[in-house]
Amino acid sequence: MTIKVAVADDQALVRVGFCGIIAATPGFAVVGQAANGAEAVAVARAARPDVVLMDVRMPVLDGIEATRQITAAPESAGVRVIILTTFDLDEYVFAALRAGASGFLLKDTLPGDLLTAIRVVAGGEALLAPSITRRLIIEFARKPAPAPATAAARAGSLASPRMGDVASLLTERECEVLRLVATGLSNAEIAGRLCISPATAKTHVAHLLTKLDARDRVQLVIIAYQAGLATPA
């Protein structure tokens, strides 16, 4: 199956470079480009890509608000967003997590890692770039959630659940799986750790997504930390 990708970046050379890598790879197709956040929202709604590569600092509408609008709107709710950032601990990235971003990439990412990240996020299988994402999640989890100022912000934000609230919704095994998801493990790695089949691990993760009303694994990680079921190492 072909993975449809859109690229949003106000720097033409960066945008063209990413598009060239993606378009030249079998199994991928570029379905749209955007030079600002407003264009990115329009492309996401019209072309319905599987993944949008989203820059943060763009004119007209920044990447964070564009991500929030994409993930909150019914017509683009299935679109995944990967944030493109220059700095691996950029403050904007924490806001992007709350807006519904599914992953992060540094702009100097190698082409092979870029394609792997897109595959991972399109499939909802695991967090990408664990060395970066785990640090971001841990830092994010330590910060109190700001009160959303608008309806759009509320739609894109996560509540801060208490451990008892989350645990009461889950079986003991599901709590165990959630803790492992919070460490960045893939379904196969979770299966190996718990001595279960990958299919069973995938089923547990699917149940977690449904029971906790989470969009993807990034949100599961956030919920695990906020609920106290996982703690920074």
The figure for the number of domains is 2
- The rounded distance between the terminal residues' Cα atoms is 38 Å
Mean pLDDT over all positions = 83
Question: The CATH topology of the largest domain is what?
Answer: Rossmann fold
Question: What is the radius of gyration?
Answer: 17 Å
Query: In which range does the helix fraction lie?
Result: 40-55%
- Residue share in β-strands: 5-15%
Order of H and E elements: EHEHEHEHEHHHHHHHH
Strand arrangement in the largest pleated sheet: 2-1-3-4-5
Shape: globular
CATH superfamily of the largest domain: Response regulator
What is the CATH-assigned architecture of the largest domain?
3-Layer(aba) Sandwich
**What structural class is derived from the secondary structure elements?**
alpha/beta
Structural commentary:
- With about 230 residues, the chain is α/β, with parallel strands linked by helices.
- The protein has two domains: about 140 residues, Response regulator (Rossmann fold); about 70 residues, Arc Repressor Mutant, subunit A (Orthogonal Bundle), CATH 1.10.10.10.
- The protein is built from twelve helices and five strands.
- The protein has a five-stranded parallel beta sheet, sandwiched between helices.
- Helix 2 runs parallel beside helix 3 and helix 9 crosses helix 11.
- About 5% of the residues have low confidence.
